Write the structure tokens for this entry.
Amino acid sequence: MRTHNCGELDKKALGKKVKLCGWDHKRRDHGGIIFIDLRDKYGLTQIVFDPKHNKDAHETAENLGREDVIQVLGTVRERPEGMENKRLVTGEVEVLVEDIFVLAKADTPPMEVNDRVEANEEMRLKFRYLDLRRPTMQKRLYFRHRCAQSAREYLSANGFMEIETPMLVKSTPEGARDYIVPSRVNPGKFYALPQSPQLYKQILMVGGCDRYFQLARCLRDEDLRADRQPEHTQIDLEMSFVDVDDVLALVEGLMKHVFKKVLGKDIKTPFPRLPYKEAMDSYGIDKPDLRFGLELADVTETVKGSDFQVFKNAEMTKCLAVEDKFTRKDIE
């Protein structure tokens, strides 16, 4: 249906006959000539409807609305001087349309399909298919895809097998409630959806698979919190005949590989390692954010003679010395 996508045409294609498919992103009328930015996953291409060139195609374009899905046939030509858009790969060319076919008409969109105006979260979720068309969302999906592919690449190169484990399982005690699924063929019986593939990957190790991984979907019947979702995807792996240092080195190598492949950034390994006791003594948490250097100071001796009852009766008192540059919001 198409010879090119909407994000690849440039001056090398001048004079070529091309077919493009996509959504009517934006329309402009200038002296009877209609300009439309045609959008697909890959980008935007300006297409031109000139009644002097093809009257029928121009009449069809007059009735197009935002987000209508179309296919066009036309010739690539250079944009007039001063009309180029240097921000686009396709910004130096346009397609003069010779024929158009409307694949689907769209109702007036309830939200803008661009990154200039973001709808509220309820609207975005209700019309998710529109939200996913936005360039930002397309980039995020592609970013996630590249992360997954680079992780697969690294783990496969290090002797891991990607193995899918069952989704309908027996309920086992874990850290959260299970989602349950009634069995049609066994009335009164229920399956559970996996909170993690823990038992299955241990079986794989006992079964001699040595190194396993999967991008596992985990489901937990929990209330929503900032760090808790009903479902999430994790890079799940298991290794046989290894010690702690082997596991840490493998995971550090995985992170280094993903950052390099996806972001083009080199990260230094090995990562800093902090004993649990030192982390709790210095930061009061076993997963401290080390970017700000906010260490706890022991002021027990300083405040134990205080009249403030909380300090007076405390076995230990620690505090943070926060600089003025932090706002109240930062502190909270």
Remarks:
- The chain has a mean pLDDT of 93.
- Residues 135-157 form the longest helix (23 residues).
